[in-house]
Amino acid sequence: MRGKVVCAFAACVLALSAAPALADAVDGFDEAGGDLRPYLQCVPYAREVSGIQIYGDARTWWDQAEGRYARGHIPRAGAVMAFQPYGTMTLGHVAAVSRVLDSRTVLLRHANWSPIGGRRGQIEDDVRAVDVSPDNDWSEVRVWYAPIQDLGTTAWPVAGFIYPTREVRPAFQLARTDPARPAAPSRAFLKAFAAFDAPGPVPLRANEARGKRKPVDLVAQVARN
Questions:
Q1: Cα separation of the two ends of the chain
Q2: pLDDT tens, 11-32?
Q3: What residue spans define the domains of the chain?
Q4: Does the pTM exceed 0.85?
Q5: Which superfamily, per CATH, for 2-166?
Protein backbone atom coordinates (compact mmCIF):
# COMPACT_ATOMS: atom_id res chain seq x y z
CA MET A 1 0.00 0.00 0.00
CA ARG A 2 2.79 2.37 0.92
CA GLY A 3 4.53 1.65 -2.39
CA LYS A 4 1.38 2.60 -4.29
CA VAL A 5 1.10 5.92 -2.43
CA VAL A 6 4.74 6.77 -3.18
CA CYS A 7 4.27 5.96 -6.87
CA ALA A 8 1.10 8.05 -7.06
CA PHE A 9 2.86 11.00 -5.41
CA ALA A 10 5.79 10.72 -7.81
CA ALA A 11 3.42 10.65 -10.77
CA CYS A 12 1.72 13.84 -9.57
CA VAL A 13 5.05 15.62 -9.18
CA LEU A 14 6.11 14.57 -12.67
CA ALA A 15 2.83 15.74 -14.17
CA LEU A 16 3.13 19.13 -12.52
CA SER A 17 6.70 19.59 -13.68
CA ALA A 18 5.69 18.92 -17.30
CA ALA A 19 3.00 21.60 -17.40
CA PRO A 20 3.70 25.29 -18.04
CA ALA A 21 3.15 27.82 -15.30
CA LEU A 22 -0.39 29.15 -15.09
CA ALA A 23 -0.90 32.46 -16.82
CA ASP A 24 -3.17 33.65 -14.03
CA ALA A 25 -0.86 32.79 -11.12
CA VAL A 26 0.16 35.71 -8.94
CA ASP A 27 2.41 34.44 -6.16
CA GLY A 28 4.86 31.60 -5.60
CA PHE A 29 6.15 29.81 -2.53
CA ASP A 30 9.59 28.54 -1.67
CA GLU A 31 10.25 25.00 -0.42
CA ALA A 32 9.73 26.07 3.19
CA GLY A 33 6.34 27.58 2.41
CA GLY A 34 7.56 31.16 2.60
CA ASP A 35 6.13 33.77 0.30
CA LEU A 36 8.16 34.80 -2.73
CA ARG A 37 7.89 38.09 -4.54
CA PRO A 38 5.08 38.32 -7.11
CA TYR A 39 6.38 36.94 -10.38
CA LEU A 40 6.15 38.26 -13.90
CA GLN A 41 3.07 37.20 -15.82
CA CYS A 42 2.83 36.71 -19.56
CA VAL A 43 0.52 39.66 -20.28
CA PRO A 44 2.69 42.62 -19.19
CA TYR A 45 5.76 41.11 -20.82
CA ALA A 46 3.98 40.51 -24.14
CA ARG A 47 2.63 44.05 -24.02
CA GLU A 48 6.10 45.44 -23.32
CA VAL A 49 7.97 43.64 -26.11
CA SER A 50 5.24 43.89 -28.77
CA GLY A 51 3.88 47.37 -28.12
CA ILE A 52 0.32 46.07 -28.38
CA GLN A 53 -1.66 47.97 -25.78
CA ILE A 54 -4.20 45.41 -24.65
CA TYR A 55 -4.90 44.76 -20.98
CA GLY A 56 -6.69 42.01 -19.11
CA ASP A 57 -6.36 38.24 -19.02
CA ALA A 58 -4.53 36.61 -21.92
CA ARG A 59 -7.67 34.71 -22.94
CA THR A 60 -9.39 38.04 -23.74
CA TRP A 61 -6.69 39.44 -26.03
CA TRP A 62 -7.94 37.89 -29.26
CA ASP A 63 -11.44 39.31 -28.89
CA GLN A 64 -10.17 42.65 -27.57
CA ALA A 65 -7.95 43.06 -30.64
CA GLU A 66 -10.92 42.99 -33.01
CA GLY A 67 -11.37 46.45 -34.51
CA ARG A 68 -8.20 47.73 -32.86
CA TYR A 69 -5.40 45.63 -34.33
CA ALA A 70 -5.10 43.45 -37.39
CA ARG A 71 -5.43 39.73 -36.72
CA GLY A 72 -4.60 36.64 -38.71
CA HIS A 73 -3.23 33.11 -38.78
CA ILE A 74 0.18 33.75 -40.36
CA PRO A 75 3.12 34.32 -37.99
CA ARG A 76 5.07 37.56 -38.34
CA ALA A 77 7.92 38.97 -36.31
CA GLY A 78 6.50 41.31 -33.66
CA ALA A 79 3.06 39.71 -33.63
CA VAL A 80 1.53 38.23 -30.50
CA MET A 81 0.50 34.59 -30.50
CA ALA A 82 -2.75 34.34 -28.54
CA PHE A 83 -3.22 30.97 -26.84
CA GLN A 84 -6.65 29.73 -25.88
CA PRO A 85 -7.33 28.39 -22.39
CA TYR A 86 -6.52 24.70 -22.17
CA GLY A 87 -6.14 22.33 -19.25
CA THR A 88 -4.49 24.01 -16.29
CA MET A 89 -3.83 27.14 -18.37
CA THR A 90 -7.24 28.55 -17.50
CA LEU A 91 -6.59 32.17 -18.44
CA GLY A 92 -4.78 31.54 -21.70
CA HIS A 93 -1.33 32.78 -22.64
CA VAL A 94 0.26 35.40 -24.91
CA ALA A 95 3.73 35.34 -26.44
CA ALA A 96 5.50 37.66 -28.87
CA VAL A 97 7.01 36.27 -32.06
CA SER A 98 10.66 37.30 -32.31
CA ARG A 99 11.50 35.48 -35.53
CA VAL A 100 9.89 33.27 -38.16
CA LEU A 101 12.21 30.40 -39.10
CA ASP A 102 9.97 28.58 -41.57
CA SER A 103 6.32 27.83 -42.25
CA ARG A 104 6.18 25.58 -39.20
CA THR A 105 8.64 27.11 -36.73
CA VAL A 106 8.90 30.44 -34.91
CA LEU A 107 10.88 31.80 -32.00
CA LEU A 108 8.94 33.28 -29.09
CA ARG A 109 9.57 35.78 -26.33
CA HIS A 110 7.33 35.17 -23.34
CA ALA A 111 7.11 35.01 -19.58
CA ASN A 112 5.66 32.61 -17.01
CA TRP A 113 5.78 29.50 -19.17
CA SER A 114 8.68 27.34 -17.95
CA PRO A 115 9.72 27.20 -14.30
CA ILE A 116 13.45 27.92 -14.29
CA GLY A 117 15.58 27.29 -11.23
CA GLY A 118 12.43 26.24 -9.39
CA ARG A 119 10.84 29.62 -9.97
CA ARG A 120 7.84 30.53 -12.07
CA GLY A 121 7.38 33.86 -13.83
CA GLN A 122 10.66 33.59 -15.70
CA ILE A 123 11.38 35.28 -19.03
CA GLU A 124 12.32 33.15 -22.04
CA ASP A 125 13.55 34.80 -25.22
CA ASP A 126 13.92 33.15 -28.63
CA VAL A 127 12.52 29.77 -27.68
CA ARG A 128 10.94 27.50 -30.28
CA ALA A 129 7.28 26.98 -31.00
CA VAL A 130 6.27 24.53 -33.72
CA ASP A 131 2.99 24.40 -35.60
CA VAL A 132 1.55 20.90 -35.25
CA SER A 133 -1.89 21.60 -36.71
CA PRO A 134 -3.01 19.21 -39.49
CA ASP A 135 -3.66 22.09 -41.92
CA ASN A 136 -0.59 24.17 -41.07
CA ASP A 137 -2.83 27.01 -39.90
CA TRP A 138 -1.10 27.55 -36.54
CA SER A 139 -4.17 26.49 -34.59
CA GLU A 140 -2.09 24.09 -32.46
CA VAL A 141 1.50 24.45 -31.33
CA ARG A 142 4.09 22.71 -29.21
CA VAL A 143 6.34 25.03 -27.20
CA TRP A 144 9.85 24.74 -25.77
CA TYR A 145 9.73 23.66 -22.12
CA ALA A 146 12.90 24.40 -20.15
CA PRO A 147 12.75 21.58 -17.54
CA ILE A 148 13.00 18.92 -20.26
CA GLN A 149 15.14 21.03 -22.64
CA ASP A 150 12.86 20.18 -25.52
CA LEU A 151 9.45 20.88 -26.97
CA GLY A 152 6.61 19.95 -24.67
CA THR A 153 4.32 17.14 -25.72
CA THR A 154 1.06 19.12 -25.41
CA ALA A 155 -0.51 20.60 -28.54
CA TRP A 156 -1.69 23.97 -27.22
CA PRO A 157 -4.67 25.58 -29.03
CA VAL A 158 -3.99 29.00 -30.55
CA ALA A 159 -6.63 31.55 -31.56
CA GLY A 160 -4.28 33.35 -33.95
CA PHE A 161 -1.81 36.20 -34.23
CA ILE A 162 -2.36 39.84 -33.26
CA TYR A 163 -0.25 42.19 -35.35
CA PRO A 164 1.19 45.38 -33.82
CA THR A 165 0.03 47.56 -36.74
CA ARG A 166 -3.27 49.21 -35.95
CA GLU A 167 -6.06 48.77 -38.46
CA VAL A 168 -6.74 51.81 -40.61
CA ARG A 169 -10.43 52.00 -41.28
CA PRO A 170 -11.99 54.48 -43.72
CA ALA A 171 -14.23 57.14 -42.26
CA PHE A 172 -17.05 55.87 -44.44
CA GLN A 173 -17.91 52.66 -46.23
CA LEU A 174 -18.09 52.58 -50.02
CA ALA A 175 -21.31 50.85 -51.05
CA ARG A 176 -21.17 48.17 -53.70
CA THR A 177 -23.04 49.19 -56.84
CA ASP A 178 -23.96 47.60 -60.11
CA PRO A 179 -21.53 49.08 -62.68
CA ALA A 180 -24.25 48.94 -65.37
CA ARG A 181 -26.60 51.00 -63.25
CA PRO A 182 -25.20 54.19 -61.75
CA ALA A 183 -26.20 54.81 -58.16
CA ALA A 184 -28.36 57.81 -57.34
CA PRO A 185 -26.61 60.45 -55.26
CA SER A 186 -27.51 60.47 -51.60
CA ARG A 187 -29.61 63.16 -49.95
CA ALA A 188 -26.58 64.38 -48.03
CA PHE A 189 -24.67 64.78 -51.27
CA LEU A 190 -27.53 66.67 -52.93
CA LYS A 191 -27.99 68.93 -49.92
CA ALA A 192 -24.29 69.75 -49.78
CA PHE A 193 -24.23 70.77 -53.44
CA ALA A 194 -27.71 72.34 -53.64
CA ALA A 195 -26.27 75.84 -53.96
CA PHE A 196 -24.49 74.88 -57.16
CA ASP A 197 -27.71 73.62 -58.76
CA ALA A 198 -29.89 76.60 -57.80
CA PRO A 199 -31.31 78.43 -60.89
CA GLY A 200 -30.17 81.99 -61.43
CA PRO A 201 -29.31 84.53 -64.10
CA VAL A 202 -26.26 83.78 -66.15
CA PRO A 203 -24.28 86.97 -66.62
CA LEU A 204 -23.20 87.75 -70.16
CA ARG A 205 -19.97 89.34 -71.06
CA ALA A 206 -20.21 92.91 -72.35
CA ASN A 207 -19.66 92.07 -76.04
CA GLU A 208 -22.12 89.14 -75.85
CA ALA A 209 -24.72 91.39 -74.24
CA ARG A 210 -24.31 94.01 -76.91
CA GLY A 211 -24.61 91.42 -79.68
CA LYS A 212 -27.70 89.74 -78.25
CA ARG A 213 -29.69 92.80 -77.11
CA LYS A 214 -31.59 94.46 -80.03
CA PRO A 215 -34.05 97.36 -79.79
CA VAL A 216 -37.65 96.23 -79.89
CA ASP A 217 -40.17 98.18 -82.04
CA LEU A 218 -43.37 97.84 -80.01
CA VAL A 219 -45.46 99.81 -82.57
CA ALA A 220 -44.48 97.44 -85.36
CA GLN A 221 -45.37 94.41 -83.23
CA VAL A 222 -48.84 95.86 -82.49
CA ALA A 223 -49.41 96.61 -86.19
CA ARG A 224 -48.50 93.06 -87.18
CA ASN A 225 -50.89 91.62 -84.64
A1: 135
A2: 443 343 344 544 333 333 334 4
A3: 2-166
A4: no
A5: endopeptidase domain like (from Nostoc punctiforme) (3.90.1720.10)
